[in-house]
Amino acid sequence: MSNNIVLKRGLDIPIEGMADQKISKTIAPDVITIKPADFHGFVPRLLVREGDKVLAGSPVLADKACPDILFTSPVSGTVSEIVRGAKRKLMEVRIKADASQEHVDFGVQEPGQMNAEEIKALLLKSGLWPSLIQRPYGILANPASQPKAIFVSAFNTAPLAADMEFVLADKVADIQTGIDALSKLASGGVHLSLNSKNSSNSPFAKLKNAILHTFSGKHPAGNVGIQISHISPIMKDETVWTVSLLNLAIIGKLFNTGKLDLKRKVAVTGPVAIKPAYVEALPGMSMHDISEFYDNSAKDVRFISGDVLTGTNVGADGSLGFFDNQITLIHEGTEREVLGWAKPFRFNQFSSTRSYFSWLCPKKKYKMDTNVHGGPRAFLMSDVYGKVLPMDIFPIYLVKACLAGNIDNMEKFGIYEVLPEDLALCEFVDPSKNDIQDIIAKGIDLMIKEMA
After folding, report:
1. Does pLDDT of 1 surpass 50?
2. pTM value?
3. H-helix or E-strand spanning residue 51
4. How far from 3 is each of 156, 213, 389, 410, CA to CA, in Å?
């Protein structure tokens, strides 16, 4: 039985470049890049050297704090390069893929016949444990703990986000197996949130062994953090785990086939994308593998792994992140506009308020770029954040507490309930041009350091 939750606050950003629901290309990457930075709280210990042969599912990295947590290779091939940064910090591991792929055989498993420890052991050994994210703080889930519940969002409301039903309609059996497995790891079971617009016809509505919820409203209604705050808010000394629907299907496929298969449908989107569509690819693929989707001859394209609000600027030589199934291509807004503040008649500029006349064209899509139209300025006290954040917290006071490093106030104003992605819209509408997500991330890092 499901319950419907209506969110009255939020904002849908009308940006051009939605991907057509068709597979334009299947990509077999020549080189796959593994980035430890994709996993918050993961301190990597290298398990391979340049020239080593690996199979799909072979261990590549381990967590120094918890050596049982492994990250395994998405492909079979040869470790071609280990990239280090300042102070020899491990930045990337690059693996040159074989023409013919070989997989580690983990054995077909039936979750119904396994206990929680056996399920944990398989997830750890296969390298899929990093798919589970623990809140508060958005760190890797602790295998030694039991969360009060596991939460999954079955839809995404972010700008130009991949349509989850198109991406995973043929993976329902794997998703069901994933739910059956993870339901044994949490005392409160698995909570699955659906979009109320099509919940009755959704293939995910028939999933069993999960507690179903439906949400309606604008972005960020699809954010799992927003959903948790309305279903079961996180209190001090409580933990919950989250997993994306995409990774839930990958977990289920591991049990059903005994093989690690990270292939996914990736939406190539954005205002400068040429014929936006989907590609079949692997995490870690290079942006060069989608070169037919963009013209970067002027060096003015920003390559974002993820969506425009929360994604990572990886550059033309970057790669797709482990958790992402969207690439956004957007123009670098380096142009300066003379006396822009004095031009109210801007029919090609979107405003979340009624500063321009975009409110007269509610269905219009805009060729947005990276220009923020101004620089940082005095921090204004207003309710602009509260209008787009459907959570029962005081976002502006939380941000100021993070800026001041005041742990007591951070606790009081909701640091346990949020991750940077939850306040991405606050950053978008902020008249002071503050980097809100970075402020929240630094606040979370301080909490981890001081509360450990």
Report:
1. no
2. 0.95
3. none
4. 19, 5, 21, 31
